[in-house]
Design goal:
The complex is a heterodimer.
Chain A lengths: L6 H19 L3 E4 L4 H14 L8 E4 L6 H14 L3 E4 L2 H5 L4 H4 L1 H19 L3 E3 L16 E4 L27 E4 L7 H11 L10 E8 L2 E4 L14 E6 L12 E2 L5 H10 L18 H7 L4
Parallel strand pairs in A: 1-2, 1-4, 2-3, 4-6
Antiparallel strand pairs in A: 5-6, 7-8, 7-9, 9-10
Helix pairs in contact in A: 1-2, 2-7, 7-8
Chain B lengths: L9 H5 L1 H9 L2 E8 L6 H11 L5 H14 L9 H4 L3 H6 L6 E6 L3 E7 L7 H8 L4 E7 L6 H12 L4 E7 L8 H17 L6 E4 L23 H7 L3 H5 L5 E3 L2 E6 L2 E7 L4 E2 L4 E5 L3 E9 L8 E2 L3 E6 L10 E4 L5 E12 L10 E6 L2 E7 L4 E3 L6 E2 L9 E14 L6 H4 E6 L5 E10 L1 H5 L9 H8 L4 E6 L6 H14 L4 E5 H6 L9 H20 L3 E5 L5 H10 L5 E7 L2 H7 L4 H6 L21 E4 L5 H12 L4
Parallel strand pairs in B: 1-3, 1-4, 4-5, 5-6, 24-26, 24-27, 25-26, 27-28
Antiparallel strand pairs in B: 2-3, 7-15, 8-9, 9-14, 10-13, 11-12, 11-15, 12-14, 16-21, 16-23, 17-18, 17-22, 18-21, 19-20, 19-21, 22-23
Classes of the chains: A alpha/beta, B alpha/beta.
Chain lengths: ~300, ~625
């Protein structure tokens, strides 16, 4: 064995260490599971961290009912394979009011995801929630701690974060307060892809290019995943060879035209690309340059 | 613009598998950049990201817009805006918090922590430095070695960073003048030696123009050393050096999926481990042999420092979270008193004597910190006498833990020598500490085992020991009520003793005043005495204002569960002040008495006392009767 660990070995060891600390110190941890590639890596790391035991916490999917069908399939399969309990939460108010990404824009994310997440955490009284956010994704995330402390109302105070030294994490909190934990904070998009490649981590097939029905709107390629997609007058879905660099709600997530059908081809495309990963996501564009920082203060992951 | 570090090389397009294989074997270096706003720190990082193609077109477009709007470089790109992530930072053009950035070269992956430079952000710099293998210390070539250069170098040295790069930046603004550069390096070398820095690597650069960042600059033909990136690609990473040390593995979690498997999970802090190795579990000292190094991908033949593993032993020995698995023939020590260097991280200053949580590796214990021996002026490195440590202060103090901690000096092992202190009430991380050494008296003072136990003492008196802790404002009626309660207990044939605040201050605590630190020590001593008396089987009554929740909780923690009975003598300030039996409120209001509870010093009422009596509604005798009723049965 080589005396110096590779960067992926170090990143993996760090993530596993973080997950074990949470399990040792929190009362009711949960893993947020959004079925994307980062969630896939998180789940894989959790299985490694506690092997041969199954990870000693449930998976929580805060669902919007607007995910791609392929995502729901993989979600159910992975929960089954890992032996973990899968909790699914739908914000009842969003459901009742029929909140959807076509008619409600930003409200859709706010109600289903931000509010839904808070409600789910309150409902099951989780005091620590793992998330797959990475510091390379967005500017305010670059400054967030690995153990990110939240008030009883789920707020984040960027100016009052706990100092985090060495690999010592302070998980102490008062009743009602909680901690969001980001074990893959130090990973980049390339690290995630390479880890998936090396470990054969199962991911949603939508990451691989294939012929899919699409329409083009505001410069974004949207996939028509089911018949809930309201076509505009004259709009006809066109078959294009596309794939997704990031997966959210299907009408909010832009696809890229691609022929990359294997992981090395995807990685190749990622390396040769010239736009950042979150560019396809509408959420970052809300509220100007500080969009994500504001959302996080309100309780978004 | 210089050439990018990482020309999107033909290999990616031609043979992605070969490229991935190459990338897969890259190592990782974590480093920090230190310097003030004007030294061009953020610009340098922005440059590294830009040159290594870690900035995408959409980000670049946003950067160009932002640069024109709020940038400090006129119409040119302000790379600093890439790095300053928080809204307040972009508005004020300064770096407040540590930001982590990532880039790759052909040889390595880098994580760079961008740390703020101002003195009020010392804590952030220490935080960023704690995980770094290397530090880049930036100097503005026009200004030379400044106070902040010295401060940053000292902090990096303190936190144990052995690879220091002195980057003399903005060489373009001094016309790449070698003589000026040499003078700066000589100046720095003299300083470095004075604080014990053994070596550093100096280089002339321009983050803005790109000189000697990725390619050798034609502007500095007199410089023959490596470029910044070449140097970053080749220095040793810290964990590689830890592999040759003896095995240390702090146990995080015990894995017990079924009766046939018992594994101990943790991150190897130093050394290596393989099946067949003899290990010792600290602090118990029990030994066993490693049978398996378990991972999901199959058992390992060997695991190294930096890896997260699960170990199985040949014997069923006791081992749980907080224990340390070590090489059997070379274990670390355990001790309960240390000298440590502390960096104070919190707005609230250190309370001498107050109990804090100390977290070191996977061990958490209750500790108290003595008055600092000295603090260090981070600008001049002078030692100064202090009574406490305030935000950003660095000092040396003795720490006493409530049980033995397995440790090594920080200089030998960061994991077993570095710790944080946590406030027990707010849960804030208030300090970072580095153990220098254990104190000899900790090793020589042993707990003498006696044949008669506290249970024997109590049984002879036919009672359950208790500490009835009366707390409340001055003049609330604590002593009067405690006295009434003791008389009633005495009539019930109970063995009691009343420790009264005023009386104790005539003897045991006559050396203490009324500052916050002295009040804490006053209560600590009373707590210890009460505990000894409870050990002797007595029902102890104490009547002290004891204004701080933390100290009352400290005494509660000294005693077995259920033995500490907090009695809040709850009298409104106005009522107590109107009584003013000793005339003290009058003096305090006139300013003749400092630190008087309720006037210019706070009283923190108990949140959930076992008993509460309101003396505005009951007489002392009624209150005493009520308390006795609550205490029954007394056995």
């Amino acid at each position: 064995m080589n005396a110096t660990l590779t960067h992926l070995e170090r990143l993996e060891a760090e993530a596993i260490h973080i997950m074990r600390e949470v399990v040792a110190e929190a009362e009711r941890p949960v893993m947020l599971y959004s079925v994307g590639k980062d969630s896939a890596v998180m789940l894989h790391l959790a299985r490694k961290a506690f092997y041969p035991s199954p990870p000693p916490f449930p998976l929580l999917h805060v669902d919007t009912t607007w995910k791609f069908r392929a995502m729901y399939e993989l979600r159910d399969r992975m929960a089954n394979e890992s032996g973990m309990e899968l909790l699914i939460y739908h914000n009842p108010e969003a459901q009742e009011r029929g909140i959807n990404p076509f008619d409600h824009g930003a409200l859709h994310t706010d109600m289903w995801k931000t509010e839904g997440l808070k409600q789910a955490l309150d409902k099951w009284q989780f005091d620590a929630a793992f998330g797959g956010a990475r510091r390379d994704e967005e500017k305010s995330r670059a400054k967030e701690r690995i153990f990110s402390f939240r008030t009883a109302s789920h707020g984040w105070d960027p100016k009052n974060q706990r100092p985090e030294l060495w690999n010592l994490y302070n998980a102490r909190k008062h009743k009602g307060e909680s901690i969001r934990v980001f074990p893959i904070s130090n990973w980049t998009e390339l690290d995630v892809w390479q880890y998936i490649h090396l470990n054969n981590v199962p991911i949603v097939p939508l990451y691989f290019a294939d012929k899919r029905p699409t329409v083009e709107r505001d410069g974004m390629l949207l996939m028509v995943d089911d018949d809930r997609f309201p076509l505009k007058p004259g709009e006809v879905p066109v078959e294009r060879s596309i794939r997704f660099r990031t997966l959210g709600c299907y009408p909010l997530t832009g696809a890229v035209e691609s022929t990359a059908a294997t992981l090395p081809q995807i990685i190749q495309e990622t390396l040769l690309t010239t736009t950042s990963e979150r560019q396809g996501r509408a959420i970052d564009k809300d509220a100007g340059g500080a969009g994500m920082e504001v959302k996080k203060q309100q309780g978004y992951f | 613009m210089s050439d990018p570090i990482y020309v999107t090389d033909q290999l990616i397009a031609d043979d992605i598998d070969a490229y991935l294989d190459l990338h897969q074997h890259k190592t990782m270096l974590r480093f920090i950049t230190c310097g003030s706003v004007d030294d061009g720190k953020s610009t340098l990082i922005g440059r590294l990201l830009y040159d290594s193609k870690m900035i995408f077109e959409d980000q670049l477009a946003a950067l160009e817009t932002d640069s024109k709007k709020v940038g400090t470089q006129g119409q040119e790109i302000d790379f600093a805006l890439l790095v300053d992530g928080l809204a307040a930072e972009r508005e004020q053009g300064i770096t407040i918090d540590v930001a982590y950035r990532f880039f790759n070269t052909e040889k390595r992956k880098f994580i760079v922590a961008d740390c703020p430079g101002h003195e009020q952000y010392t804590r952030n710099m220490v935080t960023g430095a704690s995980t770094a293998d290397l530090a880049v210390i930036l100097i503005d070539a026009r200004k030379g070695v400044l106070v902040q250069t010295r401060r940053h170098s000292y902090l990096c040295h303190l936190i144990g960073i052995r690879n220091l790069v002195l980057a003399v930046n903005k060489m373009d603004l001094i016309d790449y003048d070698q003589a000026k550069y040499d003078a700066i390096v000589a100046d720095y070398a003299a300083f470095a030696q004075s604080i014990g820095i053994e070596s550093f690597t100096a280089m002339p650069i321009s983050g803005f123009k790109g000189d000697n960042i990725t390619t050798r600059s034609a502007n500095t033909p007199w410089y023959s050393g490596p470029t910044l990136v070449e140097h970053l690609e080749t220095v040793d990473v810290l964990s590689a050096l830890d592999v040759d040390k003896p095995l240390r593995l702090p146990v995080q979690w015990v894995n017990r999926p079924n009766l046939d498997f018992r594994g101990f999970a943790g991150l190897i802090a130093s050394g290596s481990v393989k099946p067949g190795d003899d290990v010792r579990v600290l602090p118990s000292g029990k030994t066993s042999t490693v049978t398996r190094v378990v991972t999901m991908a199959g058992d390992l033949d060997e695991a190294l420092a930096g890896q997260s593993v699960t170990l199985c032993f040949a014997d069923e020995i006791d081992c749980s979270r907080g224990d340390v698995i070590a090489a059997a023939d070379n274990p670390p020590q355990a001790a309960d008193q240390f000298e440590a260097t502390l960096v104070w991280l919190n707005d609230a200053a250190m309370h001498v004597g107050r109990a804090y949580w100390l977290k070191l590796g996977t061990q958490t214990v209750s500790v108290s910190v003595q008055q600092p021996k000295y603090a260090v002026n981070v600008n001049s490195m002078e030692h100064i006498a202090v009574k406490t440590l305030e935000l950003n202060a660095i000092g040396v103090a003795e720490i006493t833990t409530d049980k033995a901690v397995v440790f090594e000096p920080y200089a030998e092992n960061r994991t077993l020598g570095g710790f944080v202190l946590i406030d027990k009430l707010t849960n804030a991380t208030v300090a970072a500490g580095m153990i220098n050494f254990s104190l000899r008296r900790a090793q020589n003072v042993h707990w003498q085992a006696t044949d008669l136990t506290r249970e024997d003492h109590a049984a002879l008196k036919n009672q359950a020991p208790k500490v009835l802790w009366f707390t409340g404002l001055s003049g609330a009626g604590k002593s009067t009520i405690a006295n009434e309660v003791e008389k009633r207990l005495n009539m019930m044939n109970r063995h009691t003793f009343l420790l009264d605040g005023d009386n104790v201050r005539h003897g045991l605590n006559k050396d203490l005043g009324f500052t916050e630190a002295d009040r804490i020590e006053n209560i600590r001593r009373v707590g210890e005495v009460a505990k000894l008396m409870a050990d002797a089987g007595l029902i102890v009554l104490t009547a002290f204002i004891s204004p701080f929740r933390a100290e009352r909780d400290m005494v509660r923690a000294m005693l077995p569960e259920g033995e500490f009975v907090e009695i809040h003598v709850d009298t409104p300030l106005a009522v107590a002040e109107a009584r003013d039996v000793k005339g003290l409120y009058k003096k305090a209001r006139a300013g003749q008495l400092k630190n008087f509870t309720g006037i210019d010093s706070p009283y923190e009422p108990p949140e959930a006392p076992e008993i509460r009596v309101n003396t505005a509604e009951m007489t002392a005798a009624q209150a005493a009767d009520f308390i006795i009723q609550q205490l029954l049965p007394l056995k």
